[in-house]
Amino acid sequence: MSEETGSTHDYGEFVATLLERKPSLSRRLQQVAQYLLNNPEDAAIFSIVEIARRAGVPPSAITRFAKELGFDGFAGLQALFKQRLLGPRMSYADRLQAVNREVAAGSREPGDPRDPHEVAETFIQAAFDALLRLREDVAGAALTPFVDALQKARAVHIAAARGAFGVGSYTYYGLSRIGKRAFLLDNLGAMRAEQLAAMDADDALLVITFDDYTPETVELARKAAEAGRTVLAITDNELSPVAPLASHVLYVKEGRLGHFRSQVPAMVLCQTLVMSLGYRTPEVAAREPTRRR
After folding, report:
1. What is the pTM of this model?
2. Do 164 and 281 belong to one domain?
3. Mean pLDDT, contiguous 10-residue spans, the chain (293 residues)
4. Least crowded by CB within 10 Å, which of 74, 101, 176, 185?
5. SS3 for 183?
6. Of 54, 71, 53, 61, whose CA–CA distance to 4 is shortest?
7. How far apart, in whole angstroms, are the C-alpha atoms of residue 215 and residue 144?
8. 147 with 233, same domain?
């Protein structure tokens, strides 16, 4: 990506360039990349100081990142994210910009974090924003090949830990309910390796992990890939360590609230996969009421 053309390239080309350049980026610049990919709307509407604060880096790191990727500075980098946001997403962009103006004007003040109602409002708003983003991302996602791979697998083994464990365990429950053989790699008795070894050649490993990627989950994906097993991944962005290990990947950008993440978008995506697979199962389809024409 050249300096002259960097700001005019589309978002897909930017991501491809970032993947190519990732090994040469410093740890700090990779931190910037992770934040921008997970929060592209922020990159489009906030100042460099605010983006740096949210990403946990100094503003100079944002500038270095922009120049490293071939832009002449932050303005060129932000123009790319604005182009991504304003294309078919004007209503969402307007809403975000309105919120930004309220914050800048001081009319939107943070509530008392000790008030459960304020905490609930924060989580609800984060889930709402994340679902809007998911709806946009899913429109261009390869959902059908992902479901095809789930259907083809004789059994699905699910690796999801820490913050992703709730989503993984519900996916295990959902697959079991539609009659799909499923196993949760829960490391019971510290036997994670033994659970992985139980995978047959025609099984699939479904990996669910987000930034900060659980090392044990990443290791399971790596070992499964090395053994020639099918790996399917649900993660947050193209720089995720499990993305290159998987034959099919779906991306979910979860709203982050301090050390917690909203699990709503990932749960909705997994429910979509389970139900899509279920409708392909005659026994499940037969239980659904006939739709009126």
Report:
1. 0.70
2. yes
3. 48 87 91 90 88 92 92 90 66 49 52 70 77 80 92 96 92 96 91 90 96 90 95 93 95 70 87 94 59 42
4. 101
5. strand
6. 71
7. 29
8. yes
